[in-house]
């Protein structure tokens, strides 16, 4: 599969992946393919499509995320992680980032736990809960939240807000429908920091990464009577 990764353009992303990175990304795809035959983790089964639409699509966000996440060891939540996308490919490359994979469907969290052990990924946690429950348990604990095709943007932001630290960031992986979804977001509550076109080699489909932060609201100043 290494030839597929190289031919389909993974090196063109400029991420300077090590041989261990490549080997772990390949192992992740192999395990996903093996589990998919029984557990139906994803509708994408073709090997080349898996490389393009799973691996490369997931790690294409890294140049933008690196630019915005300046703190050491940021804590990131992946909402509706499913088969571990984009969190596991990101965790394989960014060993200094701590990722929490939130997924309520048990067969998918079983796969995520399996991959965590198989790849010896000490920088991920698998949380088999609904996002709303995690928000109650870990309110304000995350530097960033990310999601890939989890829900519409407004709902994603609503679910993300309780999880974020005061200066937290939301990374929303979107397609060309991003403008339509952005128009439904309340500008009084959210600030769009970046709208980045993602370079996906050998994939004609448009991909974008929206970076948003909650607008900090301060209580009104009440003048004291003299």
Main features:
single chain; 226 residues; alpha/beta; Rossmann fold; seven-stranded mixed β-sheet; S-adenosyl-L-methionine; SAM-dependent_MTases_sf
Your description of this structure?
- The protein has a 7-stranded mixed sheet, sandwiched between helices.
- It has 9 helices and 7 strands.
- Helices cover 38% and strands 21% of the residues.
- Helix 2 runs antiparallel to helix 5.
- The protein has a single domain (2-214), classed as Vaccinia Virus protein VP39 (Rossmann fold, 3-Layer(aba) Sandwich).
- With 226 residues, the protein is of the alpha/beta class.
- The chain has helices at residues 2-7, 19-39, 47-59, 62-68, 87-93, 106-118, 131-137, 153-160, 178-182; strands at residues 75-79, 98-102, 124-127, 142-148, 164-174, 190-197, 208-214.
Rounded to an integer in angstroms, the radius of gyration calculated over CA atoms is 18 Å
CATH C-level class: Alpha Beta
The helix count comes to: 9
Helical proportion? 25-40%
Instruction: Provide the residue-averaged pLDDT.
Output: 85
Stretches where pLDDT is under 50 for at least 5 consecutive residues are none
The CATH architecture can be named as: 3-Layer(aba) Sandwich
Order of the strands making up the biggest sheet: 3-2-1-4-5-7-6
> Strand portion, in percent?
15-25%
CATH topology, by name, is Rossmann fold
Number of domains as seen in the coordinates: 1
Care to count the β-strands? 7
CATH superfamily: Vaccinia Virus protein VP39
Please trace the helix and strand order, writing H or E for each element.
HHHHEHEHEHEHEHEE
């Amino acid at each position: 599969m290494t030839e597929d990764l190289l031919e389909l353009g993974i090196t063109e992303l400029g991420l300077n992946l090590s041989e261990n990175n490549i080997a772990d990304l390949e192992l992740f795809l192999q395990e996903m393919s093996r589990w998919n035959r029984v557990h139906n983790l994803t509708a994408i089964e073709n090997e080349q499509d898996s490389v393009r639409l799973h691996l490369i699509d997931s790690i294409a966000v890294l140049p933008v995320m690196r630019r915005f996440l300046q703190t050491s060891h940021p804590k990131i939540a992946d909402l509706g992680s499913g088969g571990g996308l984009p969190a596991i490919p990101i965790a394989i490359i960014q060993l200094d980032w701590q990722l929490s994979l939130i997924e309520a469907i048990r067969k998918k969290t079983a796969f995520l736990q399996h991959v965590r052990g198989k790849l010896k990924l000490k920088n991920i946690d698998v949380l088999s809960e609904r996002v709303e429950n995690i928000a109650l348990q870990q309110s304000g604990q995350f530097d960033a939240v990310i999601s890939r095709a989890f829900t519409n943007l407004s709902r994603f932001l609503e679910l993300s807000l309780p999880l974020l630290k005061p200066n937290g960031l939301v990374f929303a992986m979107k397609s060309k429908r991003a403008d339509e979804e952005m128009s439904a977001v309340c500008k009084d509550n959210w600030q769009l920091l970046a709208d980045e076109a993602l370079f996906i080699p050998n994939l004609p489909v448009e991909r974008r990464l929206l970076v948003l932060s909650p607008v900090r609201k301060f209580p009104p100043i009440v003048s004291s009577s003299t």
